[in-house]
Amino acid sequence: MSAEPTSFKREMLATLPSLRAFAVSLTGKHDKADDLVQDTVMKAWAKQSSFEMGTNIKAWLFTILRNEFYSQMRKRGREVQDSDGAFTERLSVHPSQYGSMDMQDFKKALAQLPDDQREAVILIGASGFSYEEAAEICDCAIGTMKSRVSRARTRLQDILKISGEADYGPDAVSAQVTTHNHSF
Amino acid sequence: MDGKDLRMIKDKLVTQQRMRTQTGRADDGLGPNSDIGARLRALYGAVQDEGVPEQLLDLLEKLDSAEQAQKAKTAARDGE
User: Counting C-beta atoms within 10 Å of the first and last residue's C-beta, which end of chain B has fewer, N or C?
Assistant: First the structure.
């Protein structure tokens, strides 16, 4: 029948894995992340007339999810977020490229960041958004986004005592960039 | 390595830098050669690779079929 709702659904489906990963990074828990994604899907569906097909559905959905998360946090208080923050739960798929101790340390370091810096570094470094898109999602200026990312990176480097350039070499890394990043 | 080689490498680096600047991602330290960027993507990618839970897919199906049904109803009414 009509192609439009189907393609809205299809585009939404394509974004769900990344949206869910962002939700896990915000809530720190898989079950809470799934509830949040579910609320986001319902909100987005109700608002779909305000979305223009062909524009950036990924950024649109991330914005809805983030707003939903912070509005729930305000209503329920900080208990919504796991005290340790991002990715603290054991992942069902282990990022096997790294030793488990190594990744544990990284998760702890990430959890030590202030919320705004953590979400900034995730949106830019992992979700594959441009600074402009990330600034729009977080409702801040591009310069603010850049400085949050920069402070987050410096802080992570300090905590982990590593340099900015990889010890692993570009090959190990580029494989992941193509696999996980930039879902569109 | 002679001066010509060095110059070529330098030109290449300058070009790369320029390309990065054009994409607005210069010096964010999270690119392909960044350790932090790689770890972020490994964590994020591990969640992405888990797939989408069944209940979420069901929800989307239900929303879509409810909408289709609503449309069919409206169309039928308008056709009368």
Answer: C
Q: State how far residue A158 is from chain B, nearest Cα, in angstroms.
A: 11
Which residues of chain B neighbour A10 with C-beta distances below 8 Å? none
Residue-wise pLDDT for A91-140, tens only, equals: 555 555 566 657 888 888 999 999 999 999 999 999 999 999 999 999 99
In whole angstroms, give the CA distance from residue A40 to residue A46. 10
Number of separate domains in chain A? 2
Q: ipTM of the predicted structure?
A: 0.75
In the structure encoding, which two tokens stand for residue B71, read together? 């449309």
3 state SS for A48-102: HHHCCCCCCHHHHHHHHHHHHHHHHHHHHCHHHCCCCCCCCCCCCCCCCCCCHHH
Same domain, A37 and A66: yes
* CATH number, residue A167: 1.10.10.10
**Nearest Cα residue in chain A from B40:** A126
What pairs with residue B34 in β-bridges?
A: A165
CB A107 within 8 A of CB A88: yes
Domain holding A65: CATH number?
Answer: 1.10.1740.10
On the CB side of B55, CA atoms within 13 Å amount to: 9
Could you give the CA distance from residue B44 to residue A24 in angstroms, rounded to a whole number?
9
Q: Does residue A77 share a domain with residue A102? A: no
pTM of the model: 0.74
